[in-house]
Amino acid sequence: MSFFRYQLPTIIVTTCGIIMLLAFFTPFDIFTTIKANLTQWMVVIASTSIWLGFLYMCNAQYHMLKRNPTRSQKILFVTPFAFFLLFFIVGISFPKDTNSPQYLWLFNNIYSQVSMTITGVMFFTLSSAAYRTFRASSIDSLALILGGLIYTLRLIPMFPYFIPWLVPVGEWLLLVPNVGGGRGAVIAAALAAMAVGLRTLWGREVVLKEG
Amino acid sequence: MDSWEVLGVLVGVFFIISVLSMLWKDNLYFRLGQQAILGATIAHTILMNMKNVLNIALIPISKGTIILIVPFILGLMIYLRLVPKYAWISKYTTSVMIGVGTGVMISGTLRGQIIDQVKATVVDIFSATNTYTVLNGVIIAIGTVTAITFWIFTREHKGVLGISAKIGRIFLMISLGANWSGELILYLTAMVGRLIFIVNIFIKSVLLGIA
Amino acid sequence: MSGNKKEPRIIWEKLGDLDYRWLYGLSIILMVIPIIQPIGLPTQVGEATKGFYNAIVNLPPGSVVCVLFSGSAGYADEQEAGFVATWKVLFEHNLKVIFVSTAVDSEIILNNELGKMVNPESYGKKYGIDYVRLGYAPLDEVGQASFAQNIRGIFAKDVYGTPLDEIPLMKDINNYQKIDLLYFQYLSCTDIEWVIRQWVVPYGTKAIVSCTTACGPMAAPYYPKQIQGFIAGSGQGTELEILSKNPGRGAVLSDSKNFGILGLLLFIVFGNISYFGKKFGKRGE
Known about the structure:
The complex is a heterotrimer of chains A (211), B (211) and C (285). Chain A has 211 residues and is mostly helical. Helix content of chain A is 82%, strand content 0%.
């Protein structure tokens, strides 16, 4: 039984991974065809497993209510299910499904508004964090502040209007020191990703041993 | 504006203000907005993907592409994660996904994010046409090399490595600052967008009747 | 009664410890001012935007552009200026355009914008001949690898249910070979790696990308060797509007952002005055 629980999944990971590598590094069409099929399968799997999110939401909401069975928590427990049902029922009930005027009304007036506002509220979170942390206490923090502020001012139209040199300096900052640091981070991250990837294909990664 | 549009604006403004109320303090209205978007997002994702299952899997299967039953069954197997006794069966699906994903990632990473990035760093210096671009190329090269040395954790940052890592950290801080400023502008744009909605649509169009 | 008298807080401590709600209130007030009274300041165009624009306009007539569109309701304000201006540029030129939605919100945003904000028919374009919409599929990195190799494996029909073989534009197009330029609009900063790994590296496909402002600095290392140009956020979207002479929502948003940042700048100054005041104040004792 341990072969089916542990060894066989590892063999599957290694086989699939090696086929992908062979499709890229060798000129044989058979591997390219298998790669095309396997990558298509991923799209099918992603679409089929979509209800998992709903089931995890049910589980999380249940545990939240169990930990804290107050009146307000009960209201918060019911809310996501109520909106889930509202969107789902409207989405399947009218002609044109998610393109129906009724669904678009919900999408534009509830979904979009809440999404955009939650994104907007992050401005204040970031601002209060910057107020606390943007203190020029070392060369590193000074580099952080200068990099951040110069590029921020370059992006707001008012400042380059009064301080024209912000544009060439901001562009230089983006395309020279930022690229230097960014490229180093990209290469380092890529090397690490390759190391972890090869360990995964070799069956050495812990995630495959769980369960 | 017809009555449905006006109702939509009022509902939108209600949700915007309920989310913004968290700036004062955490409260039930903010959490209601949060829970509402949770349920709505899951419903929306399921609705959008339900058609994909039909078009990419079930219809081709009914037309003779029997092999697509395999990813469909793999997609269904992932739901067994929720049953502790049979959760190990879902490892087959995740194994295929991990194997294909890792193989596809590694094949492009070696050239795209390592070789081509190193090549670009070197070529920038030798293909430069004037002193300014040569200098920029040298700065990028220094930034790239020193930023990579910052991520070496298998040796203590002493001596030459220590100096290099310190310089690399400065370049990374500039990069981080530029990223921070980008995030700030992103969230500022979202917040400004909501305020434009409140001022122009809600106050001017709905309340004051100005077109 | 004996008790410890609290020492009066000096100005440095007060400046470094202000209630965040002052910052929030000040920021909101400053953001509202240019909405009520627009200022209308010019925007200067950057190099990456010029590269993005030139990559499109320098395409030979009849070239095929594949638009992988990841629109998001949460980032609509940020993305709209960029993608609307880009679509207008695409339709202004003699190019064939394939639209593919890769995120759950994309298809609805595409419906809202294409035909209303940007009407291909007004540029003399015909559906099925000059442009086509394939619909939505969850195309992450592996999905894009599949799409690049076999379009019909993911989309057997277009968004209206017409088989791709019956659409004149798609007759000879089934993979990367006939795609002259890839325009990838993405949300998460690391998604640019998908295009590099699955299009640029294996097939040498030319690519331009559009992302949020936060992801612009992370796209810069790939420019100009691996991607021909990028536009990051509504700011660069506004630059594209100016460059292509297609004014739009970007200009309104850019104008309104002018004062919003001032509150934060003031508080950062306060924070640093507090820090240095405490530091040099201690040394003086």
